[in-house]
Amino acid sequence: NAGVTQTPKFQVLKTGQSMTLQCAQDMNHNSMYWYRQDPGMGLRLIYYSASEGTTDKGEVPNGYNVSRLNKREFSLRLESAAPSQTSVYFCASSGFWRTLYNEQFFGPGTRLTVL
Amino acid sequence: QQQVKQSPQSLIVQKGGISIINCAYENTAFDYFPWYQQFPGKGPALLIAIRPDVSEKKEGRFTISFNKSAKQFSLHIMDSQPGDSATYFCAANAGNNRKLIWGLGTSLAVNP
After folding, report:
1. What distance in Å separates the CA atoms of residue B85 and residue B107, rounded to the nearest whole number?
2. In this complex, which of A33, A48, A101 lies closest to B32 when CB atoms are compared?
3. Measured between CA atoms, how close is B29 to chain A, in angstroms?
4. Could you tell me the mean pLDDT of each successive run of 10 residues in chain A, 115 residues long?
5. Alpha-carbon gap, residue B109 to B112, rounded angstroms
6. Contacts of residue B44 in chain A, CB cutoff 8 Å?
């Protein structure tokens, strides 16, 4: 039982390049999330997917797109990377809504640097 | 707009001391208040959580105190250990909303 996995762990991009961050969970959770974490800024929600087939914007969606490929996988795409997108990106998932409320399980993170 | 305000931003405690982190909220619809712990290089993980129908919840050395009238909740770490050194986040959630509202985090350092 791997929980939430993210790839890659580290990535360096040049301004204007594109890339996709991959996330998968094996806990049969309905909801999945993408966050970015920057010093002093806490965790900021980029996009989330309440259930398979739906996606919604969080508080900082500009410059990003997401795809909920199936119940297990939720990817985050940077179409044209900018230095302001240098950050640590976390994927999370949650399930069993009424039983466990919104306990979110986090992946190990992707450390992205945009030069 | 910061809906959950967390303080202090950083905290240094001696081994064996009590660490206290506070959070305040405005939205009275919040009905779930978790605390997450994050070690360097790792993702956050749920530490302890409380619902507003109780004023305190204790798990080992970790206690949440909840004051509904003041709209505040706090995390107390008793007998703090160097292994507790981490960043702690409070959060809140309302009903069917799928999103957690996060505090900005507190960096705790426990000196040996």
Report:
1. 8
2. A101
3. 14
4. 92 97 94 94 93 92 96 96 97 73 89 97
5. 10
6. 43, 90, 104, 106
